[in-house]
């Protein structure tokens, strides 16, 4: 006995609210569909205009692709899990990504036409009605029929051919992200197929590398009234922190072969820097990333499990452009479906990731040594200041310098084995050349007002402070003590050999 299987209505919830947790992915899904439509007709090019209207809580995404005929629209935009796309060529092919907005809005409208001979047709999904349905007791076909409509529009001010997505009444929990223009621009610059910025020193070489193996598809994407299309976020340097921007030093390119020969499985590029530490995530450039058809797969952390230490992934800048059509992104597009071809890719990327990890460790070790040298040189300079301050007795000052002078050989040995990094600005090593001769300085003027016997006791206490604390801290404490003594007027300048008697408190 043959049975006729029924696809339950819960399937709709699964491929919308259950599929996407980041609202921004809807931009990726619709631009990905636009890229497939444009690339199917032209080798490259095309434009997308995104309009974000926070007041109306509306988003429109308009492309100048070939559009759809009324017959194509009525089927492709309503059918679920069925797509005429070619998985070996197109970026999307499962027939579910176009429903991404249903998880974050009340209405979703697709408006399109393929020529001026036909009026535009609109296919609408009512997400609010869909959420009210008792999907547990409906099949998917009935649920779709209850929440979709198809309308032929009258001719108006429409492009000759186009495809437009309109998302109405963004839900409150997603509005702060989806309607924030700066967040959207940043996301698009990282994920979507937009061109490299000319300020990035390796933009031409990277484009030539990818074009040598596949078509490097790029889109002209603008948001609202942008005059300049969105570019990738790579610039001439990486602002690690306020005081230092790590420069890009050289470009490393690799071709990752398939085990069975033929076309490469992927091409990879790495923009080497001094590896000065973790790159801030907000810059949008950190990590070894994956792209298929010039669309990003996953996040900046997609390959961090291949590094010796996952944190080192955040120190590097690079991309893996996957070319083997047998390495397929999963449904959420946050990684790839398991396969022998994926394992081959991971093995080869893992070897490269280990090399990066080694470079990061070496750079980190150098920086730690240089920081220690910097601290030692700063200590020597503070020692010189304290010894020549006149606060200490000459013998104590000479002993202090002799003690610190013993650090010089170790500092010089460290510098001889470590290549100075651009990330470090060490003080001039000449501060290490502290005079080792006995010091014979007159006492500091602040000590003149102190009686001789009291001054000796005070300088003896200062010697103890100098032996117990770091030179910089000792100098600061000694000056604080002298300031307090001066403010309290404990000693009478008119009678330097006699301490002033404190004034008795009134009864």
Observed structural traits:
single chain, 507 residues, alpha+beta, Heat Shock Protein 90, seven-stranded mixed sheet, elongated
Structure characterization notes:
- By secondary structure, the protein is α+β, with helices and mostly antiparallel strands.
- Among the domains are: 1-194, 2-Layer Sandwich (Heat Shock Protein 90); 381-488, no CATH class.
- 35% of the residues lie in helices and 17% in strands.
- The chain contains 13 helices and 14 strands.
- The strands form three sheets. Strands 5-4-3-6-2-1-7 form a seven-stranded mixed sheet.
- Strand 8 (237-241) and strand 9 (244-247) form a beta hairpin.
- The longest helix has 48 residues, at 340-387.
- It is elongated.
